[in-house]
Each structure stands twice: as C-alpha cells, then as structure tokens.
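Here's what a typical entry looks like (glycine oxidase):
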Amino acid sequence: MSQSNKIIIIGGGIIGISIAIELKLRGAKVTVISRDFQQIATNAAAGMLAPQAEAIPPGKMLDLCLKSRTLYPEWVQKIESISGLETGYWSCGILSPVYALKDRENYALPSLNYQWLNQVAIHQYQPGLSPEVIGGWFYPQDGQVDNRYLYQSIIAAAKELKVEIQSGIVTEIIRKKGKIKSLKTSIGEIEAEHYVLATGAWSQELLPIPIFPTKGQMLSLKVPSYVSRENLSLQQVIYGSHCYIVPRKDGRIIIGATCENIGFVDGNTPVGIQQLLGNAIRLYPVLRDYEILEFWWGFRPNTPDEMPILGKSNYDNLTLATGHYRNGILLAPVTGMLIADLIWNNQSNSLLTAFNYSRFMEVGSQV
C-alpha cells in the first residue's frame, strides 16, 4: 500500500491504537474512529502480563502471548519515547500461591523460567500471605503495566505521530461485491481504502462474529501513609485462584476481577465487590486495613474458545483484530506488529493462522 491509501481503524482501545501507531510508523495514513472510552476493556484491565501465571496451555495462544511479553520492554520504551509519558511497565514477576496441593497445576515448559516455592519458602519470600497458603509458583518473567498510564501514553504517541482520532460510533458497515464500501457513523458516512475492525466487546453489533461481553468488576485500595514505599512488602503481583492483587508503584493496589456473562449490564454490585474483597483478604490478610479508593467495571471481548480473532476476513479490504478477552493489554504489541505487517506489507505471520475467524464459521457464512 502507498501512503496515499487511507486506513480506518474502527475502535480506539489499546488494540486499535496499537495497530494505528504501527501502521503510521510504516508510512500509512490512519484514522481511528472511537466511541466513549468509559467501559472499554482497556480501562477495566489490571495490566497483568501473565501468560505463565494464567496457566495458558501450550499451543498457539501461549506462543502468541509469550511473543508479546518478549516484545513488551522495547515496545513500551518506543511508546514512551514518542509520547514523553510513562507507561507504568514493571517486570516485577508474579507469584501464584495455592491453598492445597491439588491446586498446584502448572505446565512444565523447560524453555521458561519458573520455580515452585514450598510453604516455608513462599512465606519467607512474600511476608503477609495467609497461613492457609501451602506453597506456590513464582514466574519472574511475568509482570505488569499500568493500563491507565499506558493508555494515556499510547494516545499521546498516536497524536504525536499525527494519527487522526475522531470521536464517533460506527453504526453500520456498508458492504458491496466482496469489499467494504463505507462506514455509516454518528459523524457521517466515511470511506477508506482499507478497514480494521477492533471494536472489542461491541464487534457483533457490526458483523456476525462470535464475540460477547464478559463483565469484570474491580476495585483499588490505597497503601496507608504509615507504610513507606521502601518498606512495602508487596513487590510483585499475587495471582490467586479466585482473585489477583496488583501493587502499583504509586501506592495503589488493584484487586480483580469478576467474570460475569450477563451482557452489557453496567455498574458494580455488592455481591461482586464482596466476592473480590473476601478472596483478596483471605489471600493477603493485611489488606483488610487498607483504604478503598475506587470501584469500576468494564466489558472484556470474549469468544467461544477465549482466543482472539485476528487477520483477514472474507472482504478484501477488511482486517479483523478483536476478541482478546483477558489479554488485550498483554497482546497489544504483537497484535499491532502482526496486523500492520499484514496490511502494509501483505506479510502473514504463521502466528496468525490459528486466530483466523474461519474457525467459527459454518459453510456458506460470511464475515
């Protein structure tokens, strides 16, 4: 494609903006159409980079996640250098405590760095854990990024690169003879040479692809003022079986997250917050005395196999990049790179093969 060709990305979350930046760096003219950001999965995330802690089974999904984790340090350095804003990236490692030996599941991959800590070792390594904890896995290569800082940084980088970002809602994709002709939007009808669908949980409003929202409720606590940053004992993410606890360098502690397949139902609920607090305090009891800062929720874009939909569609000028479920933040670097290479250089990486939408399609159907 030449620079005169205009690409429109539908969706202004972390995935859409990451693709826009990569395309712009390759020489593309890019416009992003973005709805209100309040409920997107980017805001609801905890920012964990946790392919090992989440025990993703060996296969293409794990390969994709590990590739993106490897890209992260250089990628955030690039974003920060363009934007001038920090992303909150922290290669802190993730600890996965368990209450019983039957919960000791882990995929033994000799190429990856991890270790089992017995009961004595884990309590020495992480003071303050519940006495119920009998051991756990430590994954030193997993880590985190502050999703809110990252999003501010990546938006600033896109604007610095002259990516055009328009606020609006795409209401209809106009299709004609195997191509996308135009988009009907709240700001008028617009056209481009190529389109990227990156609308996350709202993707099925525009195309018949199997994506549905999974609601996640979260909250944050504040480390008390009498606990200095230097003496803060929680220096890595704690990933339990029923919750995760994510310490931020600015003194916040993020607790998440519920998984509710109830559609687009807004709001926090007493039962959801009670569940999160109960599980977090059981795992790390010191939290019971910390101040509550904030509650929020968002909608993760889920698919039947919990893997994203990436790559070409049945339309010559439409590329799909959606359905990242719980791994949108983690997969932003690799998605941006792979989709930009596919569109701009017509270069299809073998990593994309397993994530094509056709794995869900019946004979004769079209997306």
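The domain at 6-85+147-210+305-362 is CATH 3.50.50.60 (FAD/NAD(P)-binding domain).

More examples are in the samples folder.
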